[in-house]
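Chapter review: from sequence to fold.
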Amino acid sequence: EEPPPRPPKGFYIYGDVGTGKTMLMDIFYSHVENTRKKRVHFNGFMLDIHKRIHRRKQSLPKRRLGNMFTYDPISPVAMEISGETCLLCFDEFQV
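The token string follows.
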């Protein structure tokens, strides 16, 4: 017997305005029993990401002239968020 298929890592629901995308996501979200879940508008999520990035950059030591130093805050911020939530539902995501 074959093992059951692995669950998908994500869903992207799209369609015209008023077709029930948000309602479908709300139903799904309400039935997930895990407490480490977050439902957020995409723009609000990105504002939070930028605040976290800014906070991390502000905590770095001040750079002096002639000292080249690069720091990529994306990975630590992603790890921070993954430590807070295991299900992330975006509403109003625009491509």
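Two observations follow directly from the output. The longest helix spans residues 42-58. The helical segments are 21-31, 42-58, 74-84.
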